[in-house]
Design goal:
The protein is an alpha+beta fold. 23% of the residues lie in helices and 20% in strands. The chain contains six helices and ten strands; from the N terminus they run αβαβββββββααααββ.
């Protein structure tokens, strides 16, 4: 599933064309995705201008003049494609081919950007795990978003904040970090990478970072710094392309070439002087990659 850096990359790719554009026509080629499309879906969007294109965790937020807010989730295989001036915007070398099957083009937005020729924003989703919903009020009050935790992209996520969130938590550290009510949008890939950078074991009890000792504070500070850094690095690299994920312009992310531990089972640990190797274990049905030698 695309994680926060991938969704942020999609937002940035759509922003120049979609933000400020007027939605002229909407084609809803089926009545549902993961959930049924909202009542009068096309009618409520047509003629509206997009005031802003935002993101909360792994959700795209399309703020429309006069409301509502369109909440979009990519699910497992969803992607947006920009078609403008006979250009489908699919540059780059593909490691994992995206879906080009028009049978999976489920929603098409015909838009008039503030600048440039008319465009089509196409949502393609072979597995149909993505969805589009309306928020009639502030999106943070919508049931999909209201319980989300802090974003991992700003300085507000610091060691003190992280320690307070993890205090007395008995769950393994990795499981606690994947809890979206703790940190919003932090997924499996980047938790593995952040824990390796902070030299913390995914198996350690989360509450050990919430104690009053100096060592606990050091661990919490290191982890908060590592989370912010790995997310920032992934966004700068355009995210990671796993399976059939692609950006809005059709190109792929390349942060996967910088993975230290994720999907590198058996490889030498990249930590200088460590001498250990990357192991794969399963936690709550998900693969965890880490080095037991340097991650304690």
């Amino acid at each position: 599933m695309p994680e926060l850096p991938e969704v942020e990359t999609v937002r940035r790719g759509l922003q120049p064309v979609l933000e400020g554009a007027r939605i002229v026509r909407v084609e809803a080629r089926r009545p549902d995705l993961r959930f049924p499309l909202p009542d009068r879906f096309a009618a409520r969007l047509e003629g509206k201008r997009v005031e802003a294109l935002g993101r909360r965790a792994k959700y795209l937020l399309v703020h429309l003049q006069g409301g509502p807010v369109l909440i979009c989730h990519l699910g497992m295989s969803g992607s947006f494609r920009i078609e403008q001036d006979q250009d489908s915007r699919q540059p780059g070398t593909f490691h994992h081919e995206r879906s080009r099957n028009a049978a999976h083009d489920h929603v098409v937005f015909h838009v008039e950007p503030r600048q440039g020729p008319p465009a089509r924003i196409v949502f393609n989703d072979p597995r149909r795990f993505g969805f589009m919903l309306f928020s009639e009020g502030p999106p943070d009050e919508h049931p999909m978003l209201r319980d989300l935790g802090i974003e991992p992209t700003g300085n507000s996520l610091d060691g003190a904040h992280l320690a307070a969130m993890l205090k007395d938590r008995k769950a393994p550290l990795k499981a606690a970090l994947l809890d979206q009510t703790t940190i919003a949008g932090l997924g499996n890939i980047y938790v593995c990478e952040a824990l390796w950078r902070a030299h913390l074991s995914p198996l350690r009890a989360a509450g050990t970072l919430g104690k009053a000792s100096g060592k606990s504070r050091e661990m919490a500070d290191a982890l908060a710094t590592s989370i912010r850094a790995v997310i920032a690095d992934a966004i700068a690299a355009g995210g990671s392309s796993l399976r059939d994920y692609a950006h809005a312009d059709g190109s792929l992310g390349y942060f996967q070439h910088s993975f230290a531990v994720y999907d590198r089972e058996g490889a030498p640990c990249p930590t200088p002087g460590c001498g250990g190797h990357v192991e794969r274990i399963v936690q709550s049905g998900r693969s965890t990659f880490y080095c037991r030698t340097c991650q304690k």
